[in-house]
Structure formats: C-alpha cells, structure tokens
Design brief:
Shape of chain B: globular
Oligomer: heterodimer
Strand order of the largest sheet of chain B: 6-7-8-3-9-10-12-11
Radius of gyration of chain A: 21 Å
Radius of gyration of chain B: 21 Å
Distance between the termini of chain B: 31 Å
Number of helices of chain A: 9
Number of helices of chain B: 11
Strand order of the largest sheet of chain A: 6-7-8-3-9-10-12-11
Number of strands of chain B: 12
Helix content of chain A: 25-40%
Largest interface: A-B, 51 and 49 residues
Structural class of chain A: alpha/beta
Strand content of chain B: 15-25%
Distance between the termini of chain A: 29 Å
Helix content of chain B: 25-40%
CATH architecture of chain A: 3-Layer(aba) Sandwich
Order of helices and strands of chain A: EEEHEEHEHHHEHEHEEHHEE
CATH class of chain A: Alpha Beta
Number of domains of chain A: 1
CATH superfamily of chain A: P-loop containing nucleotide triphosphate hydrolases
Strand content of chain A: 15-25%
Number of strands of chain A: 12
Order of helices and strands of chain B: EEEHEEHEHHHHHEHEHEEHHEE
Largest sheet of chain A: 8 strands, mixed
C-alpha cells in the first residue's frame, strides 16, 4: 500500500506496520499494568522529492512516528526502509550504530520550537557547523565557508555567524534550524510542526523557503502539522492519524475535496475560514481525543462519530483502498457521502 | 448610534514601557469602540500591542509599563434605579487607581479576561471548583454552598460533562479543551458585560478550537455580553467578529466591519496578511505572497509609517518621513496609510 501512488519515482522512505508501545508501570517493582499504544501499525510511503503531510490532533502519535523514523526512539515493531543515496535501501529499525550514523547524514529533522531546539551557548557557526565537523566533512576555514553559504541560502546574513541564538527572532531561529538540517545535504527532512510557533507573516516566508529548498536539493519532507491549510499548501499527499493509527491517506487535493473518513470530514470542517460571509455547517465533534492508553473498542473514532453504527464498536476497520490511491479505515465508507472543503 | 449602545470607548490610548533601552511604545494612540452585544476582533502579530491593550483596559499593566494618556470609557450599568430602568454611568478606567476599590469591583466581575495558556492561568494546587467559587464569593454575596451550586450550573453552561465531579478535580486532570472551558466558566461566573478573550484557542487542536468557538458564540447569544477577541488568526476573526481593528506596532492601521475588511482590505499590511496565508480548499503550486522582513522591535519603531520597511507599495521619501493618520475612507472604514491621503499628519 502506498500513500500516493499517483507519483512515479522511487520511494525515499517506506514505513510498514510501525508500532511504538510504552508500558504503564506501577509500584516499586514496576509491574506492568497496561500499554500506551502511541503508534499502532502505521504504514506509508514517501516518494522521492515529494512531501507527505502527517496530520492529526495532539496525542495522535504523529510526532512519535517522526521520531521513530530517525530512530530517536526505538520502535516496538515494524519496518522503516530508507533509500540512502550511499547505502541503498536500508532498514532503519535495528540498524547498528555505525549504520545509523551514516543514515542520519541523509535524514534530518526540523523542530517545532525555535527557542528550545537551539543551544543558547553555541554560536550560529557552531550550531550549523557541528554536523559538518562531527561527520568529518569539513574543518577549519572550510566549515566557515560552508556555514556562510548555508546561512545565505536560508536568508540570513553570513556576518551573523558569530552571534548566539538569543539575538534572533523566532522566524530567524527557525531558519537557523533549517540551515543546520541542510548542512549535510540530506535526502529526507522530518519537519515536526516547523511553522506553528511562528507569526502569520513569518509562516509564509518559511513555507516558501522550504519549497524552494525542496526543488533545489531534491528534498523529501515528512511534514508533521496540525494546521490543515498549511498542510494543503505544502504537501503532495496527506496521511491523517487518529489515536496511533492512520485513518485516511490520499493525494492532497483528493483528500481535501473528497474525504472518505468521518474524522477527516470533521477536521476539515473545523478549520476557521478567512471569509466572514461563509455560512458554515460545522461537524462538531463531542468530547475529547481518547487516550492511547484506553483506546475505545472497534473503530477508535466511534464514540465521537456521528455516523457510528453498532458494529463500529465491535470490529476494527482495516485501511483499504476506496478509490485508486485513496485509502480509508471506515466500515461505512462506501455508504457515506462526506463533505470536503468547498 | 445611541449613546446607550456603547459599552467601551477607547480613545487615543497610549501605554508605554520604560526600559533601559528606551521607551517601548507598546500601545501608541489606539482608539476603538465596543458595542453592547458586539464582538470586536483585534488582529495582529506578536508585539503589535494587542495584549497590552487588553491589560490596559483591566488596569493590569505592570511596571515598567504605564498608561501614558488616553481614555478608556466604560459605560457602567447600575441597577440602583429600583426597576425604574437602568442608569448608566461612564467610568474612565484609565483614571482609576489600579489597586483601588472601584477597578476591583469591575475587574473579573464586569470585565473578565481569558488567556491563551489554560495551564498557566489556573493554579495547580487548588481544585477547579474552588477556583470558580473564589470568583463568585469575591464579587457576590452568596454562601459557599450556593456558590458551589452556581459553579455547577456555569460548568454545565459551558458544556462540561459531569460538572459536579469536575469541581473536585485539579487542573492537571483535565484535557486542554476542558481546562479552557473551566477558564471560560471562571470568567463567566459573575456574568460580565465584556469578555476579553486573548488568543483563547491558539493552544488548542482544531476540533477543540471549533467547540470553544461555537461555545463562545452561543454564550454571546444567550448572555448578551460583548466580546473583545484578540487573535492573530484571520480565520477566527472572520468567524467571530463584527468589527475588526488591525494593529501593527502599537497602532491601529485599519478599522472596519468584518465583511468590509475581508472583501475590501485597504491597508497594505492587511492586504499582505490576507495574501500570505494558505487558504484551505484552494490548492496552489504557487509560492505564498510572503511579507518580507520581520516585525521591528517595539523599542526602535521605524520613522514615518511604521510598516514602510516591509510594505510593497512604499514610496520612499514620503512613507519614511510622514506618519499617516487614521482616516475614514468611506463607510466607516478607517485606514492609516498615505495612499489614502492624510499626508498632513506629520508629527
């Protein structure tokens, strides 16, 4: 199954049945009393030089998925195959230290919070130059030249390289984070909510920069975000997560215009539109996202779903192809006519 | 507009912060009105002074900040007339002693505020119930038992399931959306005539945000209160507000009703903001029309029109020299831009 079969070209990343479980323990002996299934059987593919948007609400496991891909977390089960330009297709889960070190040259991360993701005691030269230094790619004057070039590329003045992060605004810091991620010329960047902490006018600059860099360096992005308008703008395909599982994946336009899962419909209808004349019929969801430690039976979404039938609480729906390249995990998907964005 | 219809008039409000680096003009000559039952949207990016305006109204600006000049006229309705009709007295909040009796009887009771961060607003060491009843007991003469009953009713009013049970829980036991509902409950506990909402949904997920927005609209209908809604989100403004002021670096750059603002934005900043956001349902391969540069530091505001450093329609020699005035460009649509005249407004 692929998230976006419409694109030809090789997959840069394939994630199959990825699972990340955390034990819940109690007492001095750390008796295991339950499991948090933060990510529970997620499968998707990112084709080369494209962007896959991973959307969902807080606690749905989208960040955990991103961190598993870089092996910042050790997943419980599943396969992650990264098509490394030097090593060829390589299994990330269970890779040894040396393999991981080489893989991570080609996959990088951009973080949400531009304030906490930069070491305040390091200058820009040290922050952006560190990956070059530790991987033995450049040294001395060469590092300075490379850092200057990188800073210029992300729209910062190279003269700033001796300054510390505190001297920069949120948007500039996010550019520093992007320069650091670019330093090793990676193939894949996992961007975890890269613009949600930024001001409106700075968001657009940063999104444009990410798109320019994608074209220039043939980058692939796994773009994790909760803002559906931003994801629509930047992503070629979108995967929607709910309580650790994918509920729907499709190409961006198809998913937005023609959602096939009731949760996607509700998400899309929740987005406030910048048009005061729109008379909206909003699908309001009752209650909160369930905790992945106490997952509802059957389809996780059934307690909040307005179309739910009795058997939705019993059987868990499979993610299946409802039209070419469009996958949804809903028992009723053939019978419902859901509203997309208009 | 009949005088009676107004709830709050802010006239040429200036709130400055006296810092070591110089004077930061956080709010620099802001004027607007809020009608009874109306919703004023205040739109702006970080550092534009929108939150300081709200804190100034409540007289919560801390040193080194201080209200320099201007009026905040609050049309206070009192029921002393023994049913013979309400009398309205006008109080200038800017003149009150920030620690005095009068502002204390208004703050929290008649003008309430909800903030962005639901976790920092509530103290973690008291139960939700005690934090709601605190406000009720402070402003109304009721017994603790009755205050508790009222708290249950208010929590039910904001759509909280198991309200009675929630009263004895601590804030950390609630989800973000439930916490924001609890905060709205605290703010509403004394039936304020004005609710100031400072980015109340920014930290929430979209589906929770939708719930809270619907709740606030419903409460506005049911209770007839006014809302001053502060946000950076154009989508939320379009949905909530009747009237909008757009702020940039401490000044109102545009003021209009919401339809006029979105259909015919006149200030280059508003136009640029609207052009720069990705709009859902309109997938485009084109890059966004980003505004260049970043918001300047409030302690070093550019000369002339403060937006001239980022404006795509800037005319150097004029815009960097002359500070434009807020002018009516027709139909109550006010704009502070030299493109619409007003070059005489040199200061």
């Amino acid at each position: 199954m692929t998230a976006n079969s419409g694109h030809d070209g090789q997959a840069i990343l394939q994630v199959q049945e990825l699972k990340m479980y955390y034990p819940i323990t109690r007492g001095m002996l750390k008796r295991r009393i339950g499991t948090v299934k933060a990510v529970d059987g997620v499968t998707f593919t990112v084709p080369e030089a494209t962007t896959l948007g991973l959307v969902g609400e807080s606690g749905c496991g989208k960040t955990t998925t991103g961190r598993c891909i870089l092996r910042a977390l050790d997943p419980t089960a599943g396969r992650i195959i990264f098509n490394d330009k030097n090593l060829g297709p390589t299994e990330v889960v269970g890779a040894n230290k040396e393999t991981l070190r080489r893989l991570r040259i080609n996959m990088q991360m951009i973080f949400q919070d531009p304030y906490n993701s930069l070491n305040p005691r390091m200058t820009l030269l040290e922050i952006v130059g560190e990956p070059l230094l530790v991987n033995g790619i450049a040294r001395g004057q060469e590092i300075q030249d490379r850092v200057a070039e990188l800073l210029r590329r992300v729209g910062l003045r190279p003269e700033y390289m001796r300054r510390y992060p505190h001297a920069f605004s949120g948007g500039q810091r996010q550019r520093i984070g992007i320069a650091r991620a670019l330093a090793l010329r990676p193939q894949l960047i996992v961007a975890d909510e890269p613009v949600s902490a930024l001001d409106v006018s700075i968001q657009a600059q940063t999104l444009n920069l990410l798109q320019e860099l994608q074209r220039e360096f043939n980058l692939s992005y796994l773009f994790i975000a909760h803002d559906l308008s931003v994801v629509e703008h930047i992503a070629d395909a979108v995967a929607v997560m709910y309580v650790g599982k994918l509920v729907e994946t499709a190409e961006t336009e198809e998913l937005y215009l023609n959602p096939r899962h009731p949760y996607t419909e509700a998400l899309l209808s929740s987005v406030p539109k910048p048009d005061p004349t729109v008379q909206r019929q909003r699908v309001l969801l009752a209650g909160d996202v369930p905790s992945p430690a106490h997952r509802p039976s059957g389809c996780c979404f059934h307690p909040r779903c307005r179309y739910a039938q009795p058997h939705c609480a019993e059987a868990e729906p499979e993610l299946r192809e409802v039209s070419p390249g469009h996958f949804a995990a809903c028992h009723l998907t053939g019978q419902l006519s859901l509203r997309g964005v208009v | 507009m009949p005088q009676n219809d107004l709830l709050l008039e802010v006239n040429d409000l200036r709130t400055y912060f006296y810092l070591d680096q110089g004077i930061a003009r956080a709010v620099d000559g802001v004027s607007f009105d809020i009608r009874r039952g109306g919703t004023l949207g205040v739109l702006g990016e970080s550092g534009c002074g929108k939150s300081i305006t709200a804190l100034s109204i409540l007289r919560l600006v801390q040193r080194p900040g201080r209200i320099e000049s201007g009026q905040i006229l609050y049309h206070r309705r009192s029921q002393r007339g023994n049913g013979a009709g309400d009398t309205t007295e006008v109080v200038d909040l800017a003149r009150l002693d920030p620690y005095g009796q009068e502002i204390r009887s208004i703050r929290g009771a008649e003008i309430a505020i909800i903030f962005q961060e639901p976790m920092t607003f509530m103290t973690p060491v008291y139960t939700v119930g005690s934090q709601i009843t605190e406000a009720i007991v402070l402003h109304q003469r009721v017994s603790p038992r009755e205050a508790r009953e009222r708290a249950v009713a208010i929590l039910q009013g904001v759509g909280m399931p198991d309200a009675r049970e929630i009263l004895d829980r601590y804030p950390h036991q609630l989800s973000g959306g439930m916490r924001q509902r609890a905060i709205i409950a605290i703010a509403l506990s004394c039936h304020p005539s004005l609710l100031i909402a400072d980015e109340p949904t920014t930290a929430l997920d979209v589906t929770t945000e939708a719930q809270i927005l619907e709740l606030m609209k419903q409460l506005r209908r049911d209770l007839g209160m006014s809302i001053m809604y502060i946000t950076h989100s154009l989508g939320v403004i379009a949905e909530m507000a009747d009237e909008v002021v757009v702020m940039y670096l401490g000044k109102v750059v545009e003021r209009a009703n919401v339809i006029s603002l979105f259909q015919d934005p006149r200030h280059p900043y508003t136009q640029a903001l609207l052009a720069s956001i990705p709009k859902i349902g309109r997938k485009s391969r084109k890059p966004l029309n980003a505004i260049q540069g970043m918001v300047p530091d409030p302690s070093s505001i550019p000369s002339g029109c403060a937006f001239h450093t980022r404006c795509s329609m800037v005319q150097m020699g004029v815009c960097d020299q002359v500070a434009p005035e807020l002018l009516d460009t027709g139909g109550g649509h006010l704009v502070r831009c030299l493109l619409y005249g007003g070059a005489g407004g040199q200061r």
